Amino acid sequence: MRGSDAAGSAGQGRDEARGLVLGLLGVVIFAMTVPMTRLAVGPASDPQLPPLFVTAGRAACAGALSCAWLAVTRAARPARHLWPFVLVCALGTVVGFPLFLALALRRVDAMHAAVVTGVLPLATAVAAAAWLRQRPSLGFWLCAVLGTALVVAFAAWHGSGGLALADVLLLAAVASAAIGYVAGARLSAEIAAERAICWVLVASLPVTAPAMVATWPEHAASAAAWAGFGYVTLFSMWLGFFAWYRGLALGGTVRVSQIQVVQPFLAMLFAVPLLGERLDATLVVFALAVVAVVTVGRRMSVGTVRRPAVAPAFAAAVAASLASKRSP
User: Fold this and answer.
1) Residue 160 burial (CB < 10 Å; 0-12/13-18/19+)?
2) CA distance linking residue 176 with residue 294, whole number of Å
3) 310: left (phi > 0), else alpha (psi -120 to 50), else beta?
4) Most buried by CB count within 10 Å: which residue of 141, 221, 278, 326?
5) pLDDT at 324
6) How far is C-alpha 197 from the geometric centre of its chain's CA atoms?
7) pTM
8) Distance CA 276, CA 202 (A)
C-alpha cells in the first residue's frame, strides 16, 4: 500500500513538474507576442506589414493549421448551443485583441504596451464576475480600480501628460481579450481547451481568410517583419495555447498560473534585443506596481455565484481562463 502511495506521489510530482515547465513555456511564448507584433507592423516612422493584414493573416493561417489538427484528431464539432460562445470568443481573441494591439503598436513601443496590457488578468476577473453574476469583495474592486488608475497614470506620464490614441487602443485590446477569455472558458467547460481554440479559429476562417487576401501588403516588408508575423501566427495564436492549457491541466491552475506574474517583465526584456528598446527604472516600477495589484486582486474573494445553473466544469474553466493572460 505504501509502495503504491509512493508511486502515486512520485507520478503526481512528475506531472506537476511537467506542468510548471509547460506553463513557463506558454508564458514565454505569450510574452514574445507584444515585441513580435511590433516587429511585424513596425513603427509609424518605418511601417512594415499592415495591422489589418497581421490580424487577419495570423488568424487565417492558424485556422488552416487548426483544420488539419482537428481532422487528424477526428474532433467532433461543438454542440449547437456552444456556437454563440465560439462567436464571442472569436470576436474578442481572434479579432479584437490582435487588431487593437497591432494598431497600438504602430504608435507606441513594446515596453509601453507590456505595462498597459499587464492589467489583463484583473480585467478578465471583472468580466468573469459580471458573467457569473458574482458579488466581488470590496478589496477586489479596490484592486480593479487601483490597477486601472496605475495604467492610466502610466499612459499619461509616458504620453507627456495625457492619454493618446494608442492607450485607448490598448485598453480596447484588454477589454476584448477579457470578454473573449470568459467566452472561451464557457466553451472549454464542455470540450477540450485545445479543440476549443481550434474551433474558434476555424469558425473565423470565412472572415479572416478573405480579409487576409484583401489586406495583403502592397509594399515590400523586411524579413524581420515577416518573421514577427510568422511567430504570432504559429506560436502566439496556436502552439502557445497547447503548452499553456496542458501545463494548467498537469500542474494545477493555482500553482502554474503564478508563473504568469513574470510575463510583463519578460515582454519588456525581449523588447531589448529584438527591437533595441531601452529598459528604464520608471517602466520597471510601474510594471511591478501593476503586477502587485493584479496578484493581490486575483487572491481577493469574489463572493458566491447567484446563477444556479452554472456548471462546476464552467467554474473550473473560468479559473483556468483567469490564469490565462494570452496575447492571443
Assistant:
1) exposed
2) 18
3) beta
4) 326
5) 47
6) 12
7) 0.83
8) 36
